[in-house]
Amino acid sequence: MGKNDAAVKRIRGLLEHEPRINLHRHPIAISVADGAVVLEGEVDSIAAKKLALELAGSLDGIRGVVDRLRVAPGERKGDGAIRDSLCGILLRQPEFKTSAIHVVAKGRSEALREVGDEGSGRIELTVDDGVITLEGEAISLSHKRIAGVLAWWTPGCRDVINSLAVVPPQEDNDDEVVDALRVVLAMDPFVHAEQITARCRNYVVTLEGLVRTEDERRRADFDTWALFAVDNVVNRIEVRA
What we know:
Number of domains: 3
Order of helices and strands: HEEHEHEEEEHEEHEEHE
Radius of gyration: 19 Å
Number of strands: 12
Structural class: alpha/beta
Strand content: 25-35%
Helix content: 25-40%
C-alpha cells in the first residue's frame, strides 16, 4: 500500500468513527496528493462538513485540505430562487438596513440597494450550484457572522463561502462568537433564545438549557454550527415537553 493510499485509509477510518458523519448514507470521496487532502461529496449537515474537514487535516503529514463538500439541502432550489430568497432576507433584516446589497448573476452586478455613507457595509452575493458566496465589507464580526447564518438559512443552500472583510478590522475571540450567537438565536423564530445559554472556548461552543421539542434543539445546534469560525458544538440542551 502506497503512502497516499495509507493516508486515505486512515482518514476514512477517522470519518467512520465520528457519529455525526454518515458515510453509508452520504459517501465522501477522499484523495491525497503531495500532502493535500481533497474531500468531495454531499453530507447531511454543516456539522458533518466541518468535522470531516477538521479530521482530515488532523492527520500527521497533511499540509492542507481542499474542501469540495456540499450540504444536502432540505429542499432543492435553483440558483435564481436561492438568490432571490437571500436578497429578500438581507433587504428586510434590520442589521443590514444601512448596508449596500449587490447581486451578481451571469457575470453582471446589480445594485439592489445603495448607500451613500462609507463604513456602512456592502454585501455582494453570488450563487453557483447552490453555493452562496458573500463578498464585500461587513461593519463588524457579528455582522459577518449574521450574514453567513442568513445565507445558510436560505432554502436550497448547499454551502456558504463567507469572504466578507470586516472594516475596520476587529480581533476575533470567543466572546465575539457568543455575542453573534445570541443575536442569531434571538432572530430565529423557531428558537426560544431566552431558554438557551452558550459559552465558547477556543471556538468550541457549548449549548445548555431546556427546550420543548427535539426540532428546537436541532435548530439551535444548526444555528451554532452555521457561525463563521465555529469549530465544534457541544449540545447539552435538554428537551422537556
